[in-house]
């Protein structure tokens, strides 16, 4: 199978990779680029553990072919903290104990960040609907929702 | 498998005509699931998202031409479009999660031809028309004439949908879509109903289109449901007649999501509720 050469901007850096036409962006992030923060929970768009931002839009990277990323911008969980400085959402997830096993956490953080960029003042219902495609088998969701609401409030205060 | 990225419709038609085993890739939320599950093994996927005219929404004759590669999320960010066709936009907004809506297209929903596709009854009620490009040129086909059975469409070899046209919204009209699912999010419709009504000066329903989803192999555009509404003020008697007609018209199957009797009953209940919303919107009350 002939390999496809792709150039994409990943977390702000121009990145080149080779991929098979059938490989997903999630496969390439994890297996070729060593960006293993995005998780594969289901591989069928149901769990959200593989959530990334593609040209500003939240998508499941398990349902994007790697070759589709040519010329596009990709943001993953690895781009969220600035060096050692955690993003406010990451801080609040720790403070609220909004994670247990942590498998769902990167996807939820990426999704929540995209929500707060679009809507700095979401209602609890809006947060719950926005994150409905991010499954968590551990926390029962409540702490996640509270951490997101608290971050939103704090970021509004700081702005 | 080859990965093709045509930048014009002509090029896409040529690729599709030259290779009957090739598949169109729009949002990939159906195709890539099936690819990964090895349910399909196309010789090529043709990504249509680099074809400029397929990625834009434009006004045309007072209506809206929505490129076949435009995802649901992008449509729902256009407030004028949502104001004209709230039912269609809400139906597209019900497709999967935020992540799925960032990719899923209405044309993909239509071409995947699931009997339970959410945006399809809403498009049919709205009188939406698919523009098709193929080896012998371009043709316009009513959305209800695209699906021919589960997973089957009336598209001919080498043809693809380039856009969906939502006609100019008539004055004093309104549309709505509701589905029944056992959960509140992320599930497949047990029944879905799309309704579009137009009122006359006296507040009587002068035109109606009612489409039933997930209760037959393909979407049903029901004349008897429309007849139950036309000429009435949309009062309880008319809604009772509508519900009875919807229950009568539904020919569902038994499956894990619902029995025949349940689905027929729910078709009536949902038709009534959906019509109420559409009528309120036509009056400007909602
Ligand atoms: C987690 C999850 C939840 C979902 N929830 C729902 C739901 O609630 N309701 C619902 O209705 N659906 C749901 N779906 C199914 C799917 O998201 C929709 O059917 C979606 O609209 C498909 O659009 P797409 O652009 O992703 O299609 P694709 O996967 O790109 O294509 C689907 C099919 O149509 C063909 N095709 C696509 N575009 C064209 C075109 N322009 N011309 C000709 N052929 C074309 C493709 O070749 C393919 O066979 C869900 C899917 C997932 C993974
Ligand atoms: S791994 Fe992509 S949604 Fe589950
Ligand atoms: S913390 Fe374990 S799945 Fe969410």
3D architecture notes:
The complex is a heterodimer of chains A (159) and B (286). Chain A is of the alpha+beta class and 159 residues long. Chain A has helices at residues 25-32, 88-95, 105-118, 124-130, 142-158, and strands at residues 4-10, 13-19, 51-54, 57-60, 73-75. Chain A contains 5 helices and 5 strands, in the order ββαβββαααα. The mean pLDDT of chain A is 97. Chain B is an alpha+beta fold and 286 residues long. In chain B, the strands form 4 sheets. A 5-stranded antiparallel sheet of chain B has the order 4-5-10-6-7. The mean pLDDT of chain B is 96. At the A-B interface, β4 of A face α2 and α6 of B. The structure holds flavin-adenine dinucleotide (FAD) and FE2/S2 (inorganic) cluster (FES) (2 copies).
Q: TL;DR of this structure?
A:
The complex is a heterodimer of chains A (159) and B (286). Chain A is of the alpha+beta class.
Strand fraction of chain B equals 25-35%
Largest beta sheet of chain B, briefly?
A: 5 strands, antiparallel
CATH architecture annotation of the largest domain in chain B = 2-Layer Sandwich
Tally of DSSP helical segments of chain A? 5
Q: CATH class of the largest domain in chain A, anyone?
A: Alpha Beta
Q: What is the CATH topology assignment of the largest domain in chain B?
A: Uridine Diphospho-n-acetylenolpyruvylglucosamine Reductase, domain 3
Listed once per kind, the bound small molecules are: flavin-adenine dinucleotide, FE2/S2 (inorganic) cluster
Cα-based radius of gyration of chain B, to the nearest Å: 19 Å
The total domain count of chain B is: 2
Number of strands of chain B: 14
CATH class of the largest domain in chain B: Alpha Beta
The major β-sheet of chain A equals: 5 strands, mixed
